[in-house]
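target protein:
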Amino acid sequence: MIERVTETAAPEVGPIVREVVVRCPLDRAFEVFTADIDSWWPLPTHSIGGGVEHVTLEKRVGGRIYEGRADGSVADWGTILEWQPPTRLRFDWRVNPENPATEVEVVFAAIDAGTTRVTVEHRGWEQFDGPRLEKVRDSYGSERGWTTVMRKFAAHAEA
């Protein structure tokens, strides 16, 4: 008897990509996205738990991204994997401990001296199972996901 074993690769699931062009210099765009994240991140709608007072991004490889709550507790969102000011950062994203970590890369490119293109690419969806993949990926890809986050960022960067 001959058995045939066929390995099936996980389906290719493309990244979610969102891009904004902001009227501010490259250095400022990077600084707003990283050091000033607490000023613009939409915490009421984009956080893990209730009572969130701030979000912190530690500016270094190995640094954490986390939310701080009124009761003094914190919840991690991710860890900085690459830190290349003022053009790029990459971090793992694990806001739900029940889900596998995904990866987010943010690239800053000067268009001219006063305008910067900021691109967010959220990838790593292949590790999710079928039903969960669709639900989680759709939440980030929807109007309420990265689109809302990037609009908030752009408004603050241009203020």
